[in-house]
Design brief:
About 40% of the residues lie in helices and about 20% in strands. The protein has about 400 residues and is α/β, with parallel strands linked by helices. It folds into two domains: about 5-15 and about 285-390, Aspartate Aminotransferase, domain 1 (Alpha-Beta Complex); about 25-280, Aspartate Aminotransferase, domain 2. Strands 4-10-9-8-7-5-6 form a seven-stranded mixed β-sheet, sandwiched between helices. It has a four-stranded antiparallel β-sheet with strand order 13-14-17-16, covered by helices on one side. Strands 1-2 form a two-stranded antiparallel ribbon. Helix 4 links the parallel strand 5 (about 100-105) and strand 6. Helix 1 (about 25-35) packs antiparallel against helix 9 and helix 2 packs across helix 9 (about 265-280). Bound molecules: 4'-deoxy-4'-aminopyridoxal-5'-phosphate. 4'-deoxy-4'-aminopyridoxal-5'-phosphate (PMP) binds near residues 109, 186 and 209.
């Protein structure tokens, strides 16, 4: 993919917050699965079924170790972050009523906003949106004030998909737990940039998507503490999640099977396992500093261009930078960059409450990954300058 040419030029792929590219290890693992072991899992006694069951469960163990979950029972394969969050929002519904409140923040992706708003509409609970500061950071003091005995759950992203701001989730979780509030962390943007240790964070739920962490699409993870998963009822029903039906009454398997009804995305899970194995084998500290260096370089170079405003100036951030220009529309900038073979995002990034907070309709978003280079950023900056010369007309 990174050698792909578009319009005759080598691609400069800077849309990694939307999806990351996959290493050969992932493609080869999935190809091997389809060529040699493809079969359904868990219920067959034949060789192929046992082999793919073994590979599927090995992938779960890789995810468990990667996130430092206590047990593989806490790792549920889903179709992605959106699915993971919706599962929790449905499973927690019997514990929520009109006396409760659910808190999200103004910087959430719609995936961590709409399921909670819908849950509140169904149950009569109050939907509360905690504010972000002018810097695009969480207003911690205000959030602390909003968390009360009535709060049934707090849903917060680990990092923003618009500004890259990293939330102090450990501190937030500590504060929430002092008030008896469970916390769901949307880690969609974090797993490929930061260390994630769910025991250290002490979060109740953590969600991410395979395709934003060098894996394939259609696979994701829901981590949940066993104390929650044990008491939750399933939210999807079908084969594979029921131990027996006696006199018509079902008895369900324990987690994760209880939450994985039907045939799962076997190749996806195995591919995600390969992605994480690959990523975990890389020198993490140098990746983090490489990405930080590139991010700071993007910010400083953009700030030198007249008319450009960076959206958000968080103290801690991952490799995502959003900007606007005084005349040029984000869509026009992104469309013209595309003609230079540069892939960036424009729009509201599924975060309209955040756009409203800043009184803008959208941004241009540049998002990097470990494979991006300083040369690519130079090409981007030159591209932006060229475009603005035309658009600005002066
Ligand atoms: N949360 C955040 C912070 C995201 O950036 C995204 C993807 N843009 C999602 C949730 C949803 O992820 P998916 O579409 O893979 O379910």
């Amino acid at each position: 993919m990174l050698n792909t040419r578009v319009y005759g030029s080598p691609i400069v792929y800077l849309d990694n917050a939307a999806t990351t590219q996959m290493p050969y290890a992932v493609l080869k693992t999935m190809e091997h699965y389809y060529h040699h072991t493809h079969s359904n899992i868990h219920r067959g006694v034949h060789y192929l079924s046992e082999q793919s069951t073994c590979d599927y469960e090995k992938a779960r163990n890789i995810v468990k170790d990667f996130m430092n979950a206590e047990s593989e029972h806490e790792v549920i394969f889903t179709s992605g972050t959106t699915d993971s969050i919706n599962i929790v929002a449905l499973a927690i519904e019997p514990y929520v009523n009109e006396k409760h409140e659910i808190i999200v923040t103004e910087m959430e992706h719609h995936s961590n906003y709409l399921p909670w708003q819908a849950l509140c509409k169904r149950t009569g609970a109050k939907f509360i949106v905690a504010p972000v500061s002018v810097r695009g950071e969480l207003d911690f003091e205000e959030l602390e004030r909003l968390m009360t005995q009535r709060t049934a759950l707090l849903a917060i992203c680990h990092s923003s998909n618009v500004t890259g701001a990293v939330n102090p989730v450990k501190k937030v979780i500590e504060c929430a737990h002092q008030k008896g509030i469970p916390v769901l962390v949307d880690g969609a943007q974090s797993v490929s940039h930061q260390r994630v240790d769910v025991q250290n964070l002490d979060c109740d739920f953590y969600c991410f998507s395979g395709h934003k962490a060098f894996g394939p699409t259609g696979i994701g993870v829901l981590y949940g503490k066993q104390q929650w998963l044990n008491q939750f009822m399933p939210v999807k029903y079908g084969g594979g999640m029921v131990r027996q039906i006696k006199n018509g009454e079902p008895a369900y398997w324990e987690s994760p099977a209880k939450f994985e009804a039907g045939t799962p995305n076997i190749a996806g899970a195995i591919g995600l396992g390969a992605a994480i194995e690959w990523f975990a084998s890389l020198p993490r500290e140098s990746i983090i500093s490489h990405e930080l260096e590139l991010t700071q370089y993007i910010r400083s170079e953009l700030l030198k261009i007249p008319g450009i405003t960076l959206v958000g100036s968080p103290e801690e951030q991952i490799g995502i930078v959003s900007f606007t220009h005084r005349y040029a529309h984000p869509f026009d900038i992104a469309s013209l960059l595309d003609k230079l073979a540069i892939a960036v995002r424009s729009g509201a990034h599924c975060a309209q409450p955040f756009m409203d907070r800043f009184g803008i309709s959208g941004t241009v978003r540049v998002s990097i990954s470990l494979y991006n280079t300083k040369e690519e950023i130079d090409y981007l900056i030159n591209g932006i300058k060229r475009i603005l010369k035309v658009v600005d007309g002066r």
